[in-house]
Amino acid sequence: MKKIYSIVSIISLSLFSLSASAQSTLPTCTGNVTVFYVDGSIIPGTCGVFMTGAPAGATVRVFDAADNDITVPGTPPINNSGGGLAQSVCGTQAAYVILTSGGVSCQVPVNQDIVTPIKLASFSAFLKNSSVTLNWTSDQEFNSSVYSIERSNDGKNFSAIGTVKAAGISYSPLKYSFDDNSFSGTAYYRLKMIDIDGTFEYSKVVYVNGGSGANGTLSVFPNPFRSDVQLKGINASDVNKANIRIFSAAGKEVNFKVSGANSISIDPSVPQGIYMLRVKGQTYKLVKE
Q: N or C: which end of the chain has fewer CB within 10 A?
């Protein structure tokens, strides 16, 4: 959830790879494991590697570039969700880790050039009678404290309406929800994701129109878009496939799904370019970036 100012290696894992490593005689792991280098600034005094996607029960050893084992004694094996924090000696840069499972070992190098934030997997809002339910999923969390739910009437000035406690550390997707029982008419929502050190990030903004303000003038955001598009000027009850169609510049119809009260998710496989959104007889130009 927070931006981790550390070094990350996104590489693949399989304990049966036969590719050779330049740093040792062990094969390089192939498959789906993510390894973050933790340099002591995130949790003061704690250094090592934070990983996800590794085999459950695998043991982990951390090495520097000179092949010295810098693992802190007592580091537990990978948990059942495929994640864990393997502590290493602070002040010495971790270069690679060795994973061992079922008597077979392979290594994972640490890429020293990539900095990656931990992001939400999804965030959506659904209208239920006179209230709004917000749903979100985090892919993984490190050092998270709380989610502050913020609401706005104009999409510019937000204020907090509630909080949900975050997991702190999670190696697998987690689902959260929050009900806004004081919703009236229209509203914009966002999440303020706060870490235990007080730093924070904001989620994307989602929009809900429960009837008030549905003046027939269509507008969308964000535009350019990547996948999700929020529809303004239309009642949430009208956001459905009977009223909405999307076409490419060549006139080919494009698939989409309703992903929220006033949100649609456009087929992520479509290429960048210009698309035409038709809603109840109105046409709007969209640009995919």
A: C
